User: Fold this.
Amino acid sequence: MNKAPFIIHVSTPSSWRGGEQQVLYLCQELSARGIQQLVVTPTRGILAEKLRGICTTVGMPKHASIDIRWARAIANAAKQGIPCVIHAHDSHAHSHAVIAASVFSCRAPIVVSRRVDIPVQSSRGSQWKYNHPNVRRILCVSDVVKHITQHAVSNLDVLATVYDGIDVDRFVREPTGKLRALLGAAPNQSLIVNIAALADHKDHLTFVQAAEEIAVALPDAVFALIGEGSERENIERVIADKGLTKKVILLGHRSDVDQLLADADVFLFTSKAEGLGSSILDAMACGVPVVTTNAGGIPEIATHNVDALIAPTQDPVALARHVLSVINDGSLREHLVTQALITANRFSKSRMAEETIKHYLAVSD
Assistant:
């Protein structure tokens, strides 16, 4: 393998979601391989905190979507006299990287990660940045995302699929009782969990509707939503309207998910749009059976009746039926858990990093 270039990561969110987790995993893996890297990210962001001791960060203010100071910082980092690649991990990072090229004459090749299964906007600005000559790779999180993105790209050779990775060893596989204690749930009560940002495309309203269906058959069942986001107030209102306030509990953002997830009897994922759904892989690694929708790239990591049960999007009745099947059929549950662990091991963060490094080397030749 040729010597890897210096990697300048750009990640603009201050919050913590799946994309930021992937940046952290990638930085950990590159560091373990001795690859030099630097991360441009918000000064007070969660990612900057988690990267301490792993790699150098350049802290930036986070006041606006586009900030010329970010582009200048990227260009300055790239002018250190060594071969480098800029890896933009989100849409705003992508914008800043191409501005660095256009305004500050930054010649470093750009690799872009795209994780959402929605079409690229048809605006002139979006078309410009997706077809900028410095953009040498667009790493799509699934084949579905790659297919959607190709309509905005004139040179299809820049498109590639690199699946997200997970840390299979991060999660506790035996129940700890911590989540049940948080919820006040007894060992004999069925516990159905969802972990996702409280955003519209995650479709927690379908989760609540499915919970209502499940509660008819399992009156003692408890439902937990782990995550935070803009839809919280709307979700709380629907839960209250359905009289489920004591059954569907919102726990907000938790930093100890790796200690909580194994307590679940079922992981119920209800997204109506999804680039990949790496939380599903986390649940698989924990030995928790998965019931999910078929949104976006999910069918690329989960197979119905093999390692998960899959229903159409926005179909709470079908999702509820699958949850009840898992809870009531021990042999089905055992089969899903056994196969799911095999699946989870195929999507390791090490594999994700190796695939990404191949693209770094290809664009830096």
Remarks:
- The chain has two domains: 6-165+348-364, 178-346.
